[in-house]
Amino acid sequence: MQALFNSLPPEDYKNGVLALGGDGRYFNREAAQIIIKIAAGNGVGKILVGREGIMSTPAVSAVIRKRKASANGGFIMSASHNPGGPEYDWGIKFNYSSGQPAPESITDKIYGNTLSISEIKTAEIPDVDLSRLGVTKYGNFSVEVIDPVSDYLELMESVFDFQLIRSLLSRSDFRFVFDAMHAVTGAYAKPIFVDKLEASLDSISNGVPLEDFGHGHPDPNLTYAKDLVNTMYSENGPDFGAASDGDGDRNMILGKKFFVTPSDSVAIIAANAQEAIPYFRSGTKGLARSMPTSGALDRVAEKLSLNFFEVPTGWKFFGNLMDAGKLSICGEESFGTGSDHIREKDGIWAVLAWLSIIAYRNKDKKPGEKLASVSDVVKEHWATYGRNFFSRYDYEECESEGANKMIEYLRDLVSKSKEGEKYGNYVLKFADDFSYTDPVDGSVASKQGVRFVFMDGSRIIFRLSGTGSAGATIRIYIEQFEPDVSKHDMDAQVALKPLIDLALSVSKLKDFTGREKPTVIT
């Protein structure tokens, strides 16, 4: 924390207002008190903290943006979608005055200052009662405990047609479930889905935030949200299911016995946004995706004649485009979807976007008429745009040495590659280590993922992920476009098997890591 203050220009925080919230994980309560004292010691004027230290990542961004005249930024206590508890991860990040994640120019300074810090400035003030709303003053410094939901809910009501969504959730022939995974969106689920949108109370599962996420892994995917998946694939399962992660910025969307990939999800939201979501009624400025995300969104941008951007993994790259007025809707294959209403990905926003699309498709359906389902919407989209078969293999907690050697081997391989080389039945178009030049500020991000792109548009991508604290996570992304409607119902793992086998062979993953199987398949 002190290294962060040492890295910021004094005018960005002296006598200013900063927000503070977190996902409810272990140590957040203690950390909130420490952060408040250090903020006071460094001359901050006021801290806006969520009740009990709770506030989702999207809500922190919303609070900063709503109170932009006074709020200079904010702190988020979270280790994202990683497990919580005494033996697991804890983290903190800083969001700047537009509600966006701090740029690398700041995070690099913070790291540098951690190596040379000589003092910690802290104020000798009592702990603040975080359970009670209101303002506590200590001389020129004050702490305001705020409702973590109200500003965010107000924003959601301005983006979506709540009456339209309510008309869907109150139908007797439509069943909805939301799994908060005992994480931060448990604090938001009842006020939004039940109190405002009239979903039944029993539609919310794992709705109480817990310090260890109920001994779970709050990552909304097919592996870690298994209870929800089992519910959605059961006989007579619900019509619509969704989950969000530890800090509320990721989402998973499911229909009855049907999984929507994050890559398809952002493309379908973009294709339907103008008609189904009031915020986009006047049109969208542009679309963007992270490089590993499938090309489904590219096809929507082309058909709708919209600006399109391919950026490295990391939401900060979208924020620059949004602030420049170039981008409205964006997403990452890692279950992150969002828009320019804030400067973070937003799990509940994505759920409300999908509910809006389903509600719009069914707004004229009378009781007893067959409703358009999640799978109907997805398959109609594929019929129009084609299907991008996509899968991601995660190998978690690999030995760092072996993982790094594998990536270096692949970098050497692509540096020598030539167009036209054959890889099994695939002909290479190009191979590289993705680099991105920001069209707004000209900054360059290099070594963002090793890509093999083939003549038919198929892609294999290799990346190391750094969000956990134990070992390295290797991610392999596999994609193949299929325009033939008769093949759209194939299982993705079947359709992609030749590419998956090729990826494992080319990378020599087993030789470098000793791993036989992935931890997670998406």
Distance between the termini: 36 Å
Question: What topology, given as strand order, has the largest sheet?
Answer: 17-18-21-22-23-16-24
Low-confidence stretches: none
Q: How many H/I helical runs?
A: 17
The portion of residues assigned to helices is 25-40%
> How much strand content do the residues show?
15-25%
Shape: globular
Number of strands: 24
**Mean of residue pLDDT values:** 95
Secondary-structure class: alpha/beta
The gyration radius over C-alpha positions equals 23 Å
Largest sheet: 7 strands, antiparallel
Describe this structure as you would to a colleague.
- The protein contains 17 helices and 24 strands.
- A seven-stranded antiparallel β-sheet has the order 17-18-21-22-23-16-24. A six-stranded mixed β-sheet has the order 4-3-1-2-6-5, with helices on both faces. It has a five-stranded mixed β-sheet with strand order 8-7-9-10-11, sandwiched between helices.
- Helix 6 crosses helix 12.
- It is of the alpha/beta class and 522 residues long.
Features:
522 residues, alpha/beta, seven-stranded antiparallel β-sheet, six-stranded mixed β-sheet, globular
Question: Can you summarize this structure?
Answer:
This protein has 17 helices and 24 strands. A hairpin with a 6-residue loop joins strand 22 and strand 23 (472-482).
